[in-house]
Structures
1.
Amino acid sequence: MVTTTEKLPPATDHDESQNEWDTEDFKMAQTYLDKTTRWMKLDENVLLPLRNPKRAMTVMVPVRMDDDTVRSFVGYRVHHDLAMGPGMGGVRFSANLTMGEVASMAMRMTWKCALMNLPFGGAHGGLRIDPRDHSQGELERATRRYCSEIIELIGPNQDIQTPDLNTNEQTMAWILDTFSVNVGNTIPSIVTGKPKSIGGSLSSHHATGYGVALVTRKVVRHHDLDRKTPRVVIQGFGQVGSALAMSLKSMGFLIMAVSDSRGGIYNRDGLDLQVVQDYKAKHDTLEGCPGGDPISNEDLLTIDCDILAPCAVSNQVNRDNANQLKCKILVEGANGAVTPEADEMLESRGIIVVPDILTTGTGVTVGYFEWVQGLMRLLWTEDEVYSRLEELVDRVTTKVFKMSEQYGGCSLRMAAMRIAIDRVVEARWLRGLYP
């Protein structure tokens, strides 16, 4: 006998009549949009369609468990704006996933794609599921059923899926196969970040970390802070944070401290990153790692350094700790790492904040390269991908610097947002209104 249980959404404090995406995550994304558009003096009728998703789908995803019971999970797929082209965005698996979180990521993806001048709009999605509680077989069945439930929204010319929190190249391979079986032929460009053996390019996480490093180096050089070895602190030693650390070290930076969710390690003379990586791989934690002093995530953020890179989760730099930071440059290696209140506090203190739409937009760029290769049925070498990425990062960051200077030294966030919004608004205006 098969029994069915349903995993219901967690209780919320907001009124049920509110939009499900009306959460703190989404409000934060809207705040950055509103601040920029007020400065740009955009008409309210132009702004309103950009403040909310174009469409949002909620699905129930029934999954057969290993014990032959069936559980149902909530899934989402959101399109924020598609004026620039088909949607592109991540798929994340999280026990506390909400529509607001997904919608905020979709909005950020719109700005990333526009800033990098990619032919995509912003999308995002995922499942409210904790991968730690499930076997590989259960995760495969959940992924495939989720893909089937949203299949009417996705496609290589509609909405391309990419890896995100708790998903990886294996997840993308399952989505590719499920979509391809449903349409009757293999469609490589339905996903990016897939294994190389089935048309993948570079690891999206490694590419993002490397891209963040490229942007960081460009900012450091622009502000003439590279006359001595820049000292770096990185919160979050996951796939992006570790790739960022290794990339910056190879560029001549000194990595003083890194951390994971349980704590970190600090050495003012610099860490041996190979030792740190090996220890993390063996123990799945940085607790007890040799070569430095233990440090909490909270204390790590306040280390005196040249560059602080929060690469963990959102809202790590907020109004409670922004005045305690002692860095010259803060690089957002995670989406929404700095809250709007903290952003203004850091700007008033003269700390340069490099925004997430510029830094992590590099990962989307490598996804674009993979999408193109899939459509053309060719494969670039890694050297070609890195060369194209470096060229694009150089061009975009230079444009952001010029925009900042053009408007009296405005923040890099405002400059980057203005470039992105200008492109989206122009695309919407040129396409017109139908009917």
2.
Amino acid sequence: MNTSDNGQGRIFVIDTNVLMHDPTAIFRFDEHQVHIPMVVLEELDANKKGLSEASRNVRQVSRFLDELMQSASKAEIDQGLPLPSSLLEPSEERPQGRLFFQTRPMSATLPETLPGNLADNSILAYTLAQQQAAPEILVTLVSKDINLRIKAAILGIHAEDYFNDRTLDDPDLLYTGIDDLPGDFWEQHSKGLDSWQESGRTFYRINGPRVAQWYPNQFLSMGGDRPLAGIVREITPEGAIVELVQDHTGEHRSVWGIKARNAEQNFALNLLMRPEVDFVTILGFAGTGKTLLTLAAGLAQTLDSGLYKEIIMSRVTVPLGEDIGFLPGTEEEKMEPWMGALMDNLEVLTQSEEGGDWGRAATNDLLRSRIKIRSMNFMRGRTFLNRYIIIDEAQNLTAKQMKALITRAGPGTKLICLGNIAQIDTPYLTETTSGLTYTVNRFRSWAYSGHVTLRRGERSRLADYANEIL
């Protein structure tokens, strides 16, 4: 947040949804004043019960406020409580702001166009009163509610979204996992080029200006007369070690009968089939093959090579339309309606004519015995050993939820997160604040993780055309 020109800082009035979204928000405004209206405390109190992420965040906010107010007198509360950075990040030095609560009735009145005793209108009235009491200071209402920000603008109140949870400013700048090399790449990077073979694989050591921009397990792609399809294995002071990727586009290197149909799918299979890569994220719009490739690689490494004991698949249960109510049965039976993508892809993977209907049924029973469907609601506290875990629709997870899931992985476990950040259904999450976006950015420098964005649809010409024009 920017400091106002008068040197007195700014006043930020915080809406309830900001604290429910990020309980550490009160510590994110540097040296400025943070104001919490009384109606916000009432809304927090009304939402503190429950097992949802929002309820847990509300309880964390209450603990932060309680710690700040310990042994504080009424006079100290009126003057504003100091906001030490030690509660948030002890190792980071931050300018100290002050926290204010509503301690007296508001003098501002709203126009007759905003009648009633709604919580949003009370927040607007409090912000307007602060603006009238300190006209020389920029007063800002911070809310994730677009309609509240619209009403504030109509009243002449400066309002902003909460930006501190953004991983990046523009989703188009998100790391894709692929570097499309220019045509003159070899002219600039051929000096000191070294190559060798080891265990049937071809490696290059490359030096040059572009090497500094690469990350571990990033793919390099170039066409033309001297094509290159490689993966960055290691970056050393002597240069980057690049390995030529395995070609999974032909029958002889298919994975559980699935061939890569384009370069991005081939890159994805290379990541999925490498045991040394513990964490993989795959982005792509509908029809790019995310689930099919991931499931095929999981079956090949679970049933064929025995690298993993079983496949665990889960996803966020956010409905596309109206909810259909409670579902009967066990945890797995309750999750089955959400796992249509799994069933559809299993049909593709078991469509062989060998053995007839009986053979397909036996194969399906075998696969289902090694694929477990689990709800995210029961992941907390668990540790998965030697498992191949698939998290589908991960774009609907917050950064905190992603951390809770990734830390469930034990020794020998591979975790794959799939999603399309253009299809976010969770309230208050955007392409720039999604937990999947956050994870892609944070893990790109780790030597045991990899990411690839699938850009070409392979479902059908109808699906591809719909993605382009609708």
